[in-house]
Amino acid sequence: MTRWLMARRWRRSPADGADRRWLAVDPERFSAGLVSLGPVLCLWADGWGSTPAAAPDLHALARPSCLCHTCAVTPDGPRESISLCDDAGIARVRLHLLPDTDYLAWDALVADARDLPAPDATPAGRVDRARRLRFVTQRLGPCELLCVRAAGAASALSWRTAQQLAQAEGVRLSA
Looking at the record's lineage, which domain of life comes first (predicted)? Predict the structure, then answer.
């Protein structure tokens, strides 16, 4: 949330009034930092083909090409999200800060990121699913895998915020 005061590095979008900052991150530090967040709202599109994906694009989460960190003040309060983009600049996964998220861990995700030049367009990506979840790592032999789990219990404010964000995206919040 400390990013609100650093407007000189942000690009304001006249369309929605949001401030956006494009970033390059160290993929290993970023995916390790996801585990510290606690519950977040995750938005993503179903996978290619006829079978819907059960989880967000974990490749995009573990190895993002670039990030778009967005902040906005809405009638419902401040909103902050991170869109994880592929090599083409298309958002594959978007994480939203919730009242139950660890704010210091959220800020740490982008603290060491390198600023990138802002593209002409905002990251567009189709959204089919919205779910509160948390990230964990699981050891498989010598490898550590990034996995998602249900976020568990939430405060009333966190649930309401997640429902408002999902509704604004035109999707239903999955339990």
Answer: Bacteria
Q: Are the C-beta atoms of residues 95 and 38 closer than 8 Å to each other? A: no
Backbone angles phi, psi at 92, to 5 degrees: -100, -30
Q: The CATH number of the domain where 14 resides is what?
A: 3.40.1570
Q: In this structure, are residues 159 and 123 in contact, taking their beta carbons and an 8 Å threshold? A: no
Q: Check: CB of residue 105 under 8 Å from CB of residue 118.
A: no
Q: Please state the domain count of the chain.
A: 1
**Entry pTM:** 0.82
What angle in degrees, to the nearest 10, is found between the helix axes of 103-111 and 27-34?
A: 170
CB atoms within 10 A of CB 124: 10
Q: How confident is the model at residue 80 (pLDDT cuts 50, 70, 90)?
A: very high
Report d(CA 69, CA 46) in Å as an integer: 22
Segments forming the whole domain that contains residue 149: 2-174
Q: Does residue 98 contact residue 162 with C-beta atoms inside 8 Å?
A: yes
Q: Tens of pLDDT along 15-55?
A: 567 898 999 999 888 888 999 999 999 998 765 333 445 56
